[in-house]
Amino acid sequence: MQPETKAVHAGEHLPVAPRPLMAPIYQSSVFLFDDLQRAADVNAGTAEGYSYSRIGNPNADMFGQAVAALEEAEAGAVAASGMAAILSALLALRQGGEVAMAEEVYGGSVALARGFLEPLGVRCHSFDAHDPGSLPRGISVALAETISNPLVRVNDVEALSEAAHRQGARLVIDNTFATPALFHPLRHGADLVVHSATKFLSGHGDVVLGAVVGSRELVGRAQTALTTFGGTPDPFAAWLGLLGLRTFSVRMQQAIENAACVARFLAQHPAVRRVHHPSLASNPYHGLAERQFSGRGPAILAFDLADLAAASRFVDRLTLIQYAPSLGDVATTILHPATTSHRQLAASELEHLGITPGTIRLSLGIEAAEDLIAELDHALA
Q1: Domain final residue pick, 200, 220, 245
Q2: Is 313 a catalytic site residue?
Q3: CA distances from 117 to 112, 146, 151 (A)
C-alpha cells in the first residue's frame, strides 16, 4: 500500500484481547458489514447489530439499559439532552392529541410547549399537578414531575396516573429531582419516565444527556422520534454517563443526607424566611414524601431570603459553593431561579408559582455537611 492508503487503513484490525472491565467507547459514526444480507437484516431490524450511530450505538444502548434497570423498566432510550428526552416522550405518546403540562414543570419544558409545540399546531394546556382533578379533558398525554423545580414540591404520582388513565391519556413523569434513589414512578402508574441524565444520574458535571424509560413498546416509539429528529447522543457522552452512573448509589446517599442536615440548619437561621424541603415536618408535602419516599427527601432544597438584594449579597459571599445553572453534581451548587432556570416566565407567573426574587435553589453534593453549613452560615451573616 502507498502512504496515502496506509494512513486511511493501517491499524484497522486489532488482535483478539480479553474483555475489558470498562466498556470501550464506540466512537464511530458507522459500522461495517461483511455481506449484503447482514446489512439488510440489521437495517430492517430483523437482526441485532448497528449500522449508523444516529440510529443506534452500543454506548447509548448500555447507558439506556442501565437507567432502565435502576427505574425497574423494560427498556430505555438515551437522548442528547433532557429536553430531547421530554420531546421524544411527548411525541411518542401524543398520537395526534393535545398535551398538558403541570404548572410547575421546569421552565425549559414550558418554553418547549410555547416555542416549539404550539407553533406546530399542538395545543398545550396547563394544570395544577397537586390537584389531579384539574387535568384537562381531551388530552392524550400529560407531563408532570415527581418533585417540582425549584420549590421541591412533591406530586402524588399515583393520583395523577389514575386521573390521566381515567380519560384515556398517558402520563410522563420527569423523575430528575427524585431519581431512582427515592422513587420509581413506573410502579405508581406512570407510562414513561424521563430524566435529565446530565444531573444526578451522571453526576459529575461533564456531560449533557437525557433518558426515557418504560415499556418496550412506548420506549420504541420514543427511540423512533429521537432517531428521526436527530436527538440521539454522542457515543462518548453516553460512555461518560455510564461511567458516572457506577457511583450513583453512594453519591445519592451522601447528597440526600447532606440535604436533610442543611435543611434543618437553614430552617433555624434568622436570615432565612422559608425552607422548601419535604424532610421538614413543617413542610406541607412532608406526609406525601413520607409515603412516597419512605421518610427521606431529595438532594435538592430551596430557601427564601428577604429580597433580590439579600440573594445577591448571599451569592457574593460564597466561596466553597459555586453558582451553576444546573444541578446534581458531586459538588454543591446554587442557582437563582428567577434569573436562570425560570427566566422565561413573567413576574406574575413566578409569583403564582411561589418563586420570589429572594428564592435560592441549592443542589447538595457529597462534601462534608459541616463544611457546607459553615459556608452557608458565613454567607448568610
Answers
A1: 245
A2: no
A3: 6, 23, 26
Candidate list 38, 54, 123, 313, residue with the active-site label: 54
Exactly one of 94, 153, 170, 199 is catalytic; name it: 199
For strands 192-196 and 170-174, give the pairing: parallel
User: Catalytic one among 94, 153, 156, 174?
Assistant: 174
Q: Model pTM? A: 0.94
Grid cell, residue 192, equals 414513561
Q: Of 94, 106, 329, 361, which one is the catalytic site residue? A: 106
Shared-domain flag, residues 211 and 63: yes
Q: What is the pLDDT of residues 216-259, one digit of tens each?
A: 999 999 999 999 999 999 999 999 999 999 999 999 999 999 99
Contact indicator for 150, 342 with CB cutoff of 8 Å: yes
Q: Is 128 a catalytic residue?
A: no
Q: How distant, in Å, are the alpha carbons of 164, 262, 273, 289, 295 from that of 280?
A: 30, 11, 14, 10, 10
Catalytic site includes residue 199: yes
State how far the Cα of 43 lies from the Cα of 37, in Å rounded to an integer.
10
In the residue annotation, 52 being an active-site residue is answered as: no
> What 8-state DSSP symbol labels residue 284?
T
CATH value at residue 278 = 3.90.1150.10
Count of residues in the chain: 381
Co-location of 344 and 376 in the same domain: yes
